[in-house]
Amino acid sequence: MSKPMIEACGIDKTFTLRRDGRLVEHRALKTVSADLHEGEILGIVGESGSGKTTLSRIMIGIDTASKGEILFHGDRVATRREWRDLRRHVQYVFQDPFTALCPTMRIGKALAEPLAIHGIGSREERPARVARMLEMVGLHPDMAGRLPSQLSGGQRQRVNLARALMSEPKVLICDEIVSGLDVSVQAQVLALLLDLQKRLGLSLIFISHDLRVIRYLCDRVLVMYLGEIVEQGRTDEVFAAPKHDYTRRLLAAIPDRDRPAHHSPIDEALK
Ligand SMILES: Nc1ncnc2c1ncn2[C@@H]1O[C@H](COP(=O)(O)OP(=O)(O)OP(=O)(O)O)[C@@H](O)[C@H]1O
Ligand SMILES: [Mg+2]
Q: What is the pTM of this model?
């Protein structure tokens, strides 16, 4: 296998919460280790609250781990400068397309922002880069003049993808990016994601509740349960012979799992 791009080593995360006037600790991640290799698509599944988002936020430094470390290309990420460098190369597409974009910022400006932050290209060439990226995600360059409220949910998620890709990252972490969308729109966005992954040679972490999508998209899968990785392996192997009880229950709950794949628009789009 190719070398790891990014590794989480022994990550623990404890949140302190106030409950009935008392402070209580909640251990959201329990010594989690995972890695993502060059060019691969890694799926993360697990029920709500199992720690998928927390793990991915820690991997890009939006959140800090209580214990453990993140390695990028084999080197520990520790200083501010190292985190900033990682964030140019590892981008995150948020769970909720409706809150990820600033409501008063025009799309063109939102897309140009990462270029300014990371000092990519000259100011003059930014509009052309924005237009090219809009086309790459299947949107008309005129969209640059719109506000997020003037876009459909699917268009907004395309803009989110475009924004994440502006800094030419090597790794994209996609957290439930299609779950708020209509099924046919989900299929279009997933097909776009797969196309971009191939064209740009991206490594992808794909977090989803939808096991059918994970099965089509991902080379490898991690199954999380109550803050731990309870199973991991090649997607076809995990799906064919799940070892952990929780994975078996998850798989048993897939709707229509015995029906031929081409019945779903998502399956159609990913074929
Ligand atoms: N900022 C926070 N403060 C306190 N607890 C938190 C915080 N963020 C997450 N948690 C808790 O940590 C646990 C893991 O949350 P996380 O968002 O990672 O789950 P998830 O697997 O992404 O769930 P979902 O599928 O619903 O998105 C949950 O119990 C959650 O309530
Ligand atoms: Mg989440």
A: 0.90
163 located within any domain: no
DSSP state, residue 3: P
Rounded Cα gap, residues 249 and 27, in angstroms: 24
Which helix (H) or strand (E) is 246 found in, with range? helix 245-252
Kindly state whether residue 40 falls inside one of the protein's structural domains.
yes
Q: How far apart are CA 167 and CA 169, in angstroms?
A: 6
Pairing of strands 90-93, 171-175: parallel
Residue 108 domain flag: no
Question: What is the domain count for the chain?
Answer: 1
Ligand 1 geometric centre to CA of 204 (Å)? 21
Domain containing residue 231: CATH number: 3.40.50.300
At residue 228's C-alpha, the angle toward residues 214 and 202, to 5°, is 40
C-alpha distances out from residue 44 to 84, 85, 97, 205, 251, Å: 25, 24, 19, 7, 14
pLDDT at 232 over 90: yes
Could you tell me the residue range of the domain that residue 26 belongs to?
A: 4-100+171-270
Residue 140 lies inside a defined structural domain of this protein: no
Does residue 30 contact residue 229 with C-beta atoms inside 8 Å? no
Ligand 1 proximity of 46 Cβ (cutoff 6 Å): yes
What pLDDT digit, counting tens, does each position of 73-129 carry? Answer: 999 999 999 999 999 899 999 866 667 788 999 999 999 999 999 889 899 999 999
Q: Which residues surround ligand 2, an ion (CB under 5 A)?
A: 53
